[in-house]
Amino acid sequence: MTAKGEEFDKVLGLELGADDYITKPFSVRVLAARVKAIFRRINSLSSMEEDEIIRCGDITIDITRHEVYKKGMLIEMPLKEFELLKYLVLNKGRVLSRELLLEKIWGFDYYGETRTVDVHIRYLRQKIEDDDSNPIYIETVRGIGYRFNDKVQ
After folding, report:
1. Which of 28, 30, 41, 87 pairs with 133 at a CA distance of 20 to 30 A?
2. In this structure, are residues 140 and 148 in contact, taking their beta carbons and an 8 Å threshold?
3. Does 123 share its domain with 77?
4. pLDDT tens for residues 40-53?
């Protein structure tokens, strides 16, 4: 909530991570409706993840059990690698910047190097690719970040 109602301020607030932006004066009914809308989005996202299994090529990701399988064999994977793989797969075909991945997986207040993403991608490739020097699943988009190949069936 803010008194700043200029378009620039609204865009900046949303780009900095706000889920919504409301300017003063506002009615309590409008505020309540916006809060309910946010809760609906949260609930729909969490219900999407329940019992969800994602298959891409010979990779199977069981989101509720936090397990990844390659050709039916369980792959041991630390939480950050799992979260990174899940986020890449759920955004299949989209180019995701290192900065976005840092924000989504490590949190907006993470102050480490963007190379952290590169290191975790390398570990993921070693686990899920047949030949990690010629990746099929996780593609590098030079100068930007990474993309999970949406053409893998």
Report:
1. 87
2. no
3. yes
4. 777 665 555 555 88
